[in-house]
Amino acid sequence: MPSSSNQPGTASSPPPLSPSELEEEQERNTDRKKKRCGITVPSTPASSSAASPSPTINLSREYTLAIQTASYQEIWAKIHHHRGDGGSEADDAEGDGQRFTIAQVLQPDSASVEEILRAAPASRMTRLISNYLKNSENTSLLCLSLQESVARARTLYYPIGELLELIPVCGTSTSFVVDLTPALCNKAFDVFIQFDGIENPFPLSFSSSAEANGSSSNRSNSQFMGMKGSFLELKEQLDARLHKARHKARLLRRTRRASGICLIACTTGITVVGLVLASHIMTALVAGSACILGGSCCNLVAMRGLSDDMDRLDAAARNTYVLNNDLDTIERLVTRLHDTIEDDKKLVRLGVEGGRGQRHPIEHVVQHLRKNHRSVLQQLSDLDEHICLYFASVNRVRSLLLQHIHQPES
Description:
The chain contains eleven helices and two strands; from the N terminus they run ααααααββααααα. By secondary structure, the protein is an all-alpha fold. α3 packs across α11 and α6 (124-166) runs antiparallel to α7. The two termini are 42 Å apart.
C-alpha cells in the first residue's frame, strides 16, 4: 500500500502543511513512483478542443485519488484475504479460487450484466459493450493469476532477504563489500540452490524475449491484446456518441433561445397594439405563450436527460483511457519483473556451478542480490497495487456502460 512519511531531522518540527500544499506533495510523491513503473503522465491542457470529446487526463491525480477510494481498499482486502499465503495449491483448485474471487470483486456481477444485456436493444454499441465485458472478465482472471505470481515471487525472494539480513556489510549503501564467514558461505550456497530450483513466477509472454522463444503462455499476452482492442473500439464509439450528444445539446440550447426570443417579440407586439385589439390579442398571447412555454419545458427536460447521458459517456470514456493505461503499466511491470528474475537466476546459477565453499563467486552473487533486492520488492509492490487499481477502474467502467445501455440516450 502506498504511503508517504517525512520525519524531520532536527529537534524543531516544521509548520504543518496546508491542504493544498499537502495535495501537491502527494502528487509529487506519486509522480516519482509512477516514473519507476514507467508511466508517462501527460499534463492537463488549459482548454480542450470541441473536436476532441475526451480531454487529456491527469493520470497522476487519477492515480492518487484512486488509491484513496473505499472501493480500492475493499478490493485490496478481498484479493489479499483470499490469497492467504498463496502459491501452494494445485492449478485446478487455484483456477476455481480465482473464479470465486472474480465473482466477489467484479461489479456489477455476471447475473446483473446478463439481465441488462438481454433487455438492451441490438446495436453496435451494445455489441461493443458486451465484447468489452467479456474481455474484462477474462483479463481479470489473468490479473488474479499475476497477483498469485506476485505472492510466489515474494516467497522466492524471502530466503534471500533473510540471508542478506545475516550478512554484515562494509561500506556505504552505494559502495559496499560483502565479507562471508565459512558458515554464511555455506548458507548462501543452500539459498542459491533453492532459488535456482524454483521456476520464474512470471509468464514469458510479457518479456522482450517471448517472441524469439515462443511459448504456450502467449495466451495471456493475447488476452491483454484482446482487451486493448476492445478498448480502442469502445472508446471510439463512446467519443462519437459524446460528440453527437454535444451537437444535440447545442441544438436544444438554440431552440430554447429561439423560444425566448419569440416570447419577447410576441409580448412587445402586444404592448404596441394592445389598446386597439386588447381582448383578441390577450387571447392570442395566452395561447401563444402556452405553446412556447410548453415547448421550453419539454426542451428543459430533454436537456437534463441529455446532460446526464453526456456525463455518463464522458466518465466512461475517461475511465476507459485510465484503465487502458493501467493495463499498459501492468504489462511493463510484469515484463520487467520477469527479466529481472531471469537475470538473478542466471547469476545465482553461476554461483551454484562454482561449487560449495567457493567464497569469491558466492560473495559476488550476494553483493549483486543485495544491490537489487530492494528494487525487486518495490516492483512487486507496484505490480500488486496496479492490479488492484485495474479492478477498481474496470468496475467503474462496467457500471457506467451498463447505466448507459440501461438508460439510453434521450
